[in-house]
Amino acid sequence: MNDNLDELGVGEPKGTNDMAGRITKAEDQLRPDPRYGSKVLSRFINCVMQDGKKSVAQRVVYEALDLINERTEGNPSAIEVFERAIENVKPRVEVRSKRVGGANYQVPMQVNKKRSTSLAFRWIIQSARSEKGKPMCQRLARELLDASKGEGKAMSTREQTHRMADANKAFAHFAW
């Protein structure tokens, strides 16, 4: 029988991808980082990178992870602290503007997995960059440690986003 048919007998044309809606192949092309073998860390390094200087971004992130290892004395490991920090900072909901009948409403909406990870990266990096006076690796290490404990500027940004969504939940019926 034709292997392109599903159980209802409806098939897809040959060569179509079952991941509809994907625009780029960025996720397939992303290589895990050389030291920890993590694709999430590799994406984070790419977000830290400025002006295409990947080796500088790698050095900053790896030095930050080394500082975390020194401070925690390897328990938990730096990559565990990093992953916990990202999980803590990820937002569950955000507000988006929607125009209804001539008025703009801030409508709370759930955030998909990829966007929540991207927002967490952005907030951690922005909060580390906003603090001046120390090398970036120290600022990033401090922000990641704080975020893993549920503290810091990135966590306050997340809490503020959740408070805005909670304050505007009366407009949730406008979600599209």
Description:
With 176 residues, this protein is mainly α. The protein has one domain (26-174): Ribosomal Protein S7 (Orthogonal Bundle), CATH 1.10.455.10. Helix content is 52%, strand content 9%. The protein is built from seven helices and two strands, in the order ααααββααα. A two-stranded antiparallel ribbon has the order 1-2. Strand 1 (93-100) and strand 2 (103-110) form a beta hairpin. The longest helix has 19 residues, at 54-72. The protein starts with 25 loop residues before the first helix and ends in a 9-residue tail after the last helix. The model is unreliable at 11-17 (pLDDT under 50).
Task: Offer a few descriptive terms.
single chain, 176 residues, mainly alpha, two-stranded antiparallel sheet, 7 helices
Number of helical segments with 4 or more residues: 7
Q: Which value, in Å, is the CA radius of gyration? A: 20 Å
Name the beta content range.
5-15%
Biggest pleated sheet? 2 strands, antiparallel
What topology does this entry show?
Elements: H1 26-29, H2 39-48, H3 54-72, H4 78-89, E1 93-100, E2 103-110, H5 113-130, H6 136-148, H7 152-167
Antiparallel strand pairs: 1-2
Short description:
The chain contains 7 helices and 2 strands. The chain is mainly alpha-helical and about 180 residues long. It has one domain: Ribosomal protein S7/S5 (Ribosomal Protein S7, Orthogonal Bundle).
